[in-house]
Q: What sequence folds into this?
């Protein structure tokens, strides 16, 4: 699945996942004032499936997490990344971390939703 996205800066990838019902502009507006002053980070803001400018995706969180995982693998080319997620984005970041491979360099969750388990978590 090809997700709409934007990136700012250069350096180590930081994948920033927004909450449910929002889009990448909300996450970028929240993080860029602070992160733009910290060199060495490439901040990547995708629109989750069915949000913003991204096409509709799977109807469940397992499928959404799988779509984001596949997209990130393609976009990052296997580079180690740090995950940042807010609300539903934190929930998905937890699922991505559960699938963790050597490409996961770290994670940061804020206001993680606790709506129930995602397979493999």
A:
């Amino acid at each position: 699945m090809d997700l709409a996205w934007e990136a700012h800066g250069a350096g180590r990838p930081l994948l920033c996942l927004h909450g449910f019902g929002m889009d990448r502009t909300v996450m970028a507006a929240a993080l860029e004032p602070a992160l733009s002053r910290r060199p060495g980070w490439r901040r990547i803001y995708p629109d989750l499936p069915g949000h913003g400018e991204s096409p509709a995706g799977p109807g469940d969180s397992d499928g959404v997490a799988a779509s984001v995982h596949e997209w990130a693998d393609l976009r990052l080319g296997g580079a180690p990344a740090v995950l940042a997620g807010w609300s539903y984005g934190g929930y998905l970041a937890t699922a991505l971390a559960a699938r963790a491979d050597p490409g996961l360099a770290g994670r940061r969750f804020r206001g993680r939703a606790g709506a129930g388990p995602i397979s493999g978590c």
Notes: The longest strand covers residues 11-17. The radius of gyration is 13 Å. Strands lie at 5-8, 11-17, 40-46, 81-86, 104-110. The helical segments are 24-35, 61-76, 88-98.
